[in-house]
Design brief:
- The chain is built from 12 helices and 22 strands.
- By secondary structure, it is an alpha+beta fold.
- The protein has 2 domains: about 1-185 and about 350-410, 3-Layer(bba) Sandwich (FAD/NAD(P)-binding domain), CATH 3.50.50.60; about 190-345, Helicase, Ruva Protein, domain 3, CATH 1.10.8.
- The strands form 6 sheets. A 7-stranded antiparallel sheet has the order 18-17-14-15-16-13-19.
- Helix 1 packs parallel to helix 5 (about 105-120), helix 1 runs parallel beside helix 12 (about 390-410) and helix 8 (about 270-285) crosses helix 11.
- The radius of gyration is 26 Å and the shape is elongated.
């Protein structure tokens, strides 16, 4: 049976790895190499999966988690680790059960997938762009900028819209629409949060550790709170906790939300007050002790002026003149530092895409389109997305494997 896979990303490659065990497989890739997006995941280290149970995996899926039950059971997180270990890729598990290649080289993951495909005689065509997919009497006709392919089955693994410079430009959605397959509107996920606050240059690209970022609705109700690392950019909040929150609120109206940063989550307001009062006592007898020196002991240097400006205190204010109101304002700001949230950053900054092929159109066991037998969609092109931690890569690998498994079963049953 002839199988054509569009896209040599993680889902397409894994599909080819499995499908090629019993089929003639061709991959069409418009880039110059396979796994172009894999090379930039995890800042080039490639967080390939998460060393967790199936239930934990499902709990980290934001959109259409139930749809993934079958595919994650077909190919679990442990299966992913076993697969790469068997291909000679040693793995290491870090904080949060994140799994990386021991070398921290994303190229090791791509190489393992490509080499497996080549050993199974998968034919990979680079620098070739698919223009359209057409149904025909005996299967599908796939037209590219170089050729026309008559095949039995087609797997679309074109990715979403995130990081479009890697080739993820939404091609799969257009193929689907032309075949009357429902497509959910796409929005960025795992993306920095845009803010309108004026941030001093001294804070650009600064990473806070062990802070708590929360998002509230306009009625003051907590929507989501995350503890960990946060990076302050010129016009946005990035880093793990910001990205996680983005995937929770990306379908909400930004005008109904606001952000608060707790810079001292380990301290209650009472304990923080006691600490500040002690610092004031300790500093009173020292020469040149002022508000700047007091705040310097509480926040990073680059944030001192911003803190003092927000509580309307001159940096040269003598410690002995630091009033009860000043203390109260400082405590409140350190525990409730507000940011004016104005929406999501662009797809160019997004790790994954939310939205895509409506999963109601897809058989969750096989990834086959219900009304178009022989046509499959896998990976980020589907309307499924998860939090950071290797879960999105696992979605790609599990969905790709499920389609490959289905194609092998068809061959075994003698179906063409």
């Amino acid at each position: 049976m002839k199988v054509l896979i569009i896209g040599a990303g993680p889902s397409g490659l894994m599909c080819a790895c499995k499908a090629s065990e019993n089929n003639n497989v061709v991959i069409i890739e418009k880039n110059e190499k396979a796994g172009k997006k894999i090379y930039i995941t995890g800042k080039g280290r490639c967080n390939v999966t998460n060393n967790c149970s199936t239930n934990e995996f499902i709990n980290n899926v934001v959109t259409n988690a139930k749809f993934l039950y079958s595919s994650i059971n077909h190919f679990t997180c442990q299966d992913t680790m076993d697969f790469f270990e068997k291909q000679g890729v040693s793995l290491v598990t870090e904080r949060g059960n994140r799994v990386f290649p021991y070398t921290y080289h994303a190229s090791d993951i791509t190489r393992a997938l490509v080499n497996y495909c080549l050993r199974n005689n998968v034919d990979i065509h680079y620098f070739e762009k698919v223009l359209s997919i057409e149904k025909c009497d005996l299967g599908y006709s796939v037209i590219t900028n170089k050729s026309r392919y008559e095949v039995d089955k087609v797997v679309v693994a074109t990715g979403g819209k995130s990081y479009p410079n890697t080739g993820s430009t939404g091609d799969g959605y257009e193929f689907a629409k032309k075949l009357s397959i429902d497509v959910i509107s796409q929005i960025p996920a795992l993306v920095p949060l845009l803010i309108s606050d004026l941030i001093p240059k001294s804070l650009y690209n600064f990473t806070f550790k062990n802070v708590c970022l929360s998002v509230f609705n306009k009625n003051g109700k907590l929507v989501k709170s995350e503890f960990g690392e946060l990076t302050i950019m010129k016009n946005s909040l990035a880093g793990p906790i910001s990205l996680t929150i983005s995937s929770v609120i990306n379908k909400m109206d930004y005008r109904d939300l606001y952000l608060e940063l707790d810079l001292k989550p380990a301290l209650s307001e009472e304990k923080l007050k006691a600490r500040i009062e002690k610092d004031i006592v300790d500093l009173k007898d020292k020469s040149n002790s002022d508000a700047y020196i007091l705040v310097r002991g509480l926040v990073p240097k680059g944030m001192i002026e911003l803190i003092l400006k927000r509580i309307n205190v001159d940096s040269n204010l003598a410690i002995k003149k630091f009033s009860e109101k000043n203390i109260s304002d400082l405590i409140h700001l350190l525990k409730h530092f507000k940011f004016n949230y104005i929406g999501l950053d662009s797809f160019e900054k997004a790790i994954v895409t939310s939205g895509g092929i409506n999963v109601k159109e897809i058989n969750p066991q096989t990834m086959e389109v219900n009304k178009h037998p022989g046509l499959y969609f896998v990976g980020e092109v589907l309307d499924v997305d998860a939090f950071t931690g290797g879960f999105n890569m696992q979605i790609a690998l599990s969905s790709g494997y499920s389609a490959g498994l289905a194609l092998c079963n068809l061959k075994n049953h003698g179906n063409k």
